[in-house]
Amino acid sequence: MSVEDILKTHPRPPIADLAALVRCIDECGECEATCTVCADASSAEDDVRTMVRSISLCLDCADACDATRRILSRQTDPDLTVKRTAVEACLVLCRACAEECERHAQHHEHCRLCAEECRRCERACQDLVSALAPA
Amino acid sequence: MSVEDILKTHPRPPIADLAALVRCIDECGECEATCTVCADASSAEDDVRTMVRSISLCLDCADACDATRRILSRQTDPDLTVKRTAVEACLVLCRACAEECERHAQHHEHCRLCAEECRRCERACQDLVSALAPA
Amino acid sequence: MSVEDILKTHPRPPIADLAALVRCIDECGECEATCTVCADASSAEDDVRTMVRSISLCLDCADACDATRRILSRQTDPDLTVKRTAVEACLVLCRACAEECERHAQHHEHCRLCAEECRRCERACQDLVSALAPA
Amino acid sequence: MSVEDILKTHPRPPIADLAALVRCIDECGECEATCTVCADASSAEDDVRTMVRSISLCLDCADACDATRRILSRQTDPDLTVKRTAVEACLVLCRACAEECERHAQHHEHCRLCAEECRRCERACQDLVSALAPA
Question: Which one of C32, C35, C42, C43 makes the best mutation probe of the A interface by having the most chain A beta carbons within 10 Å?
């Protein structure tokens, strides 16, 4: 089962190219989970005092990804400005979280994985913004 | 008890003028709740088929308000671009939801109340964006 | 504006005694915000390494309060087992968070305030569970 | 990238058997997305007036899955009663949503897919409850 399968059964057309939409919804879901785990893992590290900014940004990013994923899941009578605004904001939060986690990637493997996922989600958001662009 | 009380006990300074910050956090909480009730009330109306866009926008707005409220509640080592981006996006979603609910305000009292709350939240976001502006 | 005002305009009757329902929705909102701030404040404390369990429980509690608040905001064609289950779970999470934050109430004022709010939300959940009880 | 990969890099042991934990986190994510799409799809159907209970239960289920997924993602200093309570509540909401969507599975393909996903998530919750059981 996948988000793509159920979106194909929706009575309305997708708000954007289906592949770009599905990828963004999926990456937002992965990124929310990854950031939630990374923040929790950082809080358990011996050097937690140097991880505080990473924790804060991971939690912010998880919240943005969660909201964006839900907003993108709705296809009915869409306001495309609303959808695009949400994705553009999510992109900014993913990038900020990636930059911070990259600084810790050498000494914490969960930060390396989290930064990679944030970059993937950032790209998926960027591609969807392009797909949602007004003609 | 209020968000203001606990923010005053935080070891770090608030990310912006405390009154503007508290008002935005509070309005995001009110707006999330109001939009959640309004979407549910609209689904129970006899004319639900004309309320579908309102339901969709109320649910989108509730999600954005929820994420923004959490992001604004964190003061530790903030990335102000992240905070401002979240508030600016929330503002756009509140405005879109207000505009749609205003169209139904004459025949559904919950839409009138929801539109009012979305406008209040939009103003609180606007004021906080100003308070977060770079010098 | 309040949740009570908009619930009174809902075309369906409330799922339980209105006063008990409104209080629980409001306390869940307060508790979500308070726990989010408390977790963030704890991460910024010098003794963060002793606050890790409190951070984890505050984040868990915030998530439960958020979900419960939304679930209680919906009055349309309710499944009362669903509603009661959500409130009973929320109550358990509020109690666990209160117990942990009470252990830090002497040295961190945000933990004292958070524990108080968790206890208030726990009581509001308990009262609503009673109001939702099958005859 | 998967939740399993990043959980393996966490400095603390998982709160339960890793395979059962990962499956439950993953199914909660899938179920949240599926229920969000199904509620939105139902609101766009011609027979929306008969879908109102399904919409309400899908939204409740999505909220419970979202909170449970986050709560299960945290391994640090866990309160196992909290974790088990969240999963047990989620299981009840998935079952209720599955039962309602199954009633519409013949005429709406999204309800058939949603009911299937809710049943999968219910089973993953049940298996994790067993894995979390006190000795």
Answer: C43
The whole-angstrom separation of Cα D73 and Cα C34 is: 21
* Percentage of chain D modeled with pLDDT above 90: 96
Residue in A81, A71, A66, A75 with CA at minimum distance from that of residue A27: A66
B52 contacts on D by Cβ (under 8 Å): 43-44, 48
Task: Look at residue B109 and tell me if it is in a domain.
Answer: yes
Chain C residues touching B62 at Cβ < 8 A: 70
- For residue D74, is it within any domain? yes
What value does the mean pLDDT of chain B take? 96
Find where tokens 């992109």 sit.
Answer: A91
What chain B residue is nearest to A99 in terms of C-alpha separation? B79
Residue A58 lies in a domain: yes
Question: Please, are residues B101 and B111 in contact by the beta-carbon 8 Å criterion?
Answer: yes
How many structural domains is chain A composed of? 1
ipTM of predicted assembly, 2 dp: 0.96
Kindly give the interhelix angle for B52-73 and B109-132, rounded to the nearest 10 degrees: 30
A131: Cβ contacts below 8 Å, ≥ 6 apart = A16, A17, A20, A21
Q: What are C's interface residues with B at a Cβ cutoff of 8 A? A: 1-3, 5-7, 9-12, 25, 29-30, 32-34, 36-38, 40-41, 43-45, 62, 66, 69-70, 73-77, 108-110, 113-114, 116-117, 120
Neighbours of chain D (3+ CB pairs under 8 A): A, B, C
In chain C, the percentage of residues whose pLDDT exceeds 70 is: 98
Angle at C90 between CA C89 and CA C95, to 5 degrees: 100
- A60 chain-B contacts, CB cut-off 8 A: 70-71, 74, 79, 82, 86
Domain residue limits at C38: 16-131
Return the number of other C-beta atoms located less than 10 Å from residue A70's C-beta: 26
Decide if C115 is inside a domain. yes
Model confidence at D133, pLDDT cuts 50, 70, 90, reads confident
Inter-chain CB proximity D75 and A41 less than 8 Å = yes
Q: Can you give the pTM of this predicted structure?
A: 0.97
Identify the CATH number of the domain in which residue D75 sits.
1.20.1270.360
